[in-house]
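User: Sequence recovery, please. Input:
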């Protein structure tokens, strides 16, 4: 059976000089023998990142331009490029002239098999890191309007956000005066996070608008939890596609629509008709780790045939 080397690019090795990086990678590839087919697996974009276009630092832009030479030199010999999303893969493919395929991170259904949802408290949870570029103000303003209109028994939960002091302060300032209705915590073990996801009525995701192809791995876990996903705002790209194809939730982009959505979901909970799995197994299965592994297996067969 022919061997195929897969090299994952999580981030560029920026702690070395350019010549050291080139020499190091050359030695690394040579060890696997001349002519060995290999796949460049991108978890994040490198020099083709859309973030580069928003950087105002001329030195960083110059270094990124310089690094493109090495990215092309290292990756052009790859048999294929795989990426965590199509937009990332397409940009790399155009740069290095190598075909690409998106292989999603996926989720493991077994993570949720032993978890039973018990709460009837209306809970909206945002799991994961929050960044400055994420427009969380839309959901916050809609949530405050929702409270003022209905005075609901609800909680907006931000587990783990206290690790980041800046983002924690951002949340506390945005929700000043609404302390009764939201909760923040420090670091939480993954098992407890899975329980929170399963017990939530709505799982909140804030897409990075304007940055195509950025997919937080939590979105797959959200799908596995079988709870309705609220994406606000959407990204007009991969996140919207994943949520739509999995039938796992809705994508909204303004305060009024989000407010009406929250009111409708709360009314369903009061009528005891909401707390059910949201998407069918058939529509979400393509986002399991097992399915994505099969996709990679088919690609490996194509390369070695």
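Assistant: Recovered sequence (305 residues):
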């Amino acid at each position: 059976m022919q061997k195929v080397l897969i090299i994952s690019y999580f981030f560029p090795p920026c702690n070395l000089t350019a010549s050291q990086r080139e020499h190091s990678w050359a030695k690394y590839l040579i060890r696997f023998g001349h002519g060995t087919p290999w796949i460049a697996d991108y978890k994040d974009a490198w020099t083709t990142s859309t973030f580069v276009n928003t950087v105002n630092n001329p030195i960083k832009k110059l270094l990124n331009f310089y690094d493109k030479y090495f990215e092309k030199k290292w990756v052009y010999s790859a048999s294929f490029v795989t990426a965590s999303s199509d937009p990332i893969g397409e940009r790399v493919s155009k740069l290095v002239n190598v075909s690409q395929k998106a292989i999603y991170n996926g989720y493991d259904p077994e993570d949720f098999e032993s978890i039973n949802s018990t709460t009837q408290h209306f809970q909206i949870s945002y799991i994961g890191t929050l960044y400055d570029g994420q427009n969380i103000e839309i959901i916050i303003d809609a949530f405050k309007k929702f409270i003022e209109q209905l005075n609901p028994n609800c909680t907006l939960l931000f587990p783990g956000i206290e690790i980041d002091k800046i983002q924690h302060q951002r949340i506390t300032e945005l929700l000043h005066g609404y302390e009764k209705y939201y909760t923040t915590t420090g670091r939480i073990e993954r098992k407890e996070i899975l329980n929170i996801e399963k017990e939530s009525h709505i799982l909140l995701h804030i897409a990075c608008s304007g940055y195509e192809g950025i997919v937080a791995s939590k979105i797959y876990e959200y799908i596995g939890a079988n709870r309705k996903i609220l994406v606000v705002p959407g990204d007009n790209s991969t996140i919207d596609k994943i949520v739509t194809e999995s039938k796992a939730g809705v994508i909204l982009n303004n305060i009024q629509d989000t407010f009406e959505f929250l009111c409708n979901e709360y009314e369903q909970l009061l009528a005891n008709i909401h707390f059910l799995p949201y998407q069918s197994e058939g529509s979400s299965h393509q986002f399991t780790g097992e399915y994505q592994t099969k996709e990679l297996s088919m690609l490996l067969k194509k390369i070695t045939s």
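Residues 58-75 form the longest helix (18 residues).
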